[in-house]
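[audit] Reproducing an earlier prediction to check determinism. Same input, same settings, fresh worker. If the tokens differ from the archived copy the diff job will pick it up downstream; this log only records the rerun itself.
[audit] input (215 residues):
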Amino acid sequence: MKIRHSRINIQGSAPTLRAALTVRRAVSRGFTYIALLVAIVIIGISLGAVTRYWSNISLREKEEELLFRGDQYRKAIESYTRAVPGRVEFPASIDDLLADNRTAVLKRHLRRKYKDPVSGEDFVEIRDQTTRRIIGVNSPSDKEPLKQANFPEEDRDFEGKKKYSEWRFLYIPQPGQLPPGYPLPQGALPPSTPGMTLSPGVSMPAPVQPPGMQN
């Protein structure tokens, strides 16, 4: 009877053991699932941080390229205005910078027509309101720049701007860059002049001929 009773206890405990094992497996699966979710969240955060990091790196490279290309346009406009002795004239189109045929020898003031590296589109032409000639360019992008300070001297007005389109690469002649006898164009005072700022609607008079050369 004792042996038979022992067998009955063992057989009776089997379902309990199986249930306990089932609960342990379920708890283990639960912890594994939670750990997996935590790992996925951590990986997602890490990937997001890495993506933002490389995105910022890429954008900073585009900003440097934007500063370079904008400056190329500004220098090309300056070169165009000074290419013909005794004649101050701004380009009517970007093509004029690529092929200047005002003299017997064709001149190229701009190596090629650059695209805006931020938007991938053409630069916006900034034209004088009076002559409709090109005095500069700017990016068409309204995104907020990462770079907010430490600009080159010629671009110091870009500090604190909220849009790339506010980075305006203008060529405004300074007094020493004009031939003797030429009046200083209105609104073309050097940016460093105390109390003077260059407004978006800056306007300069039409090209003039030096004294004695007018028709």
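[audit] rerun output stored. Observation attached for the diff report: Confidence is low (pLDDT under 50) at residues 183-215.
[audit] end
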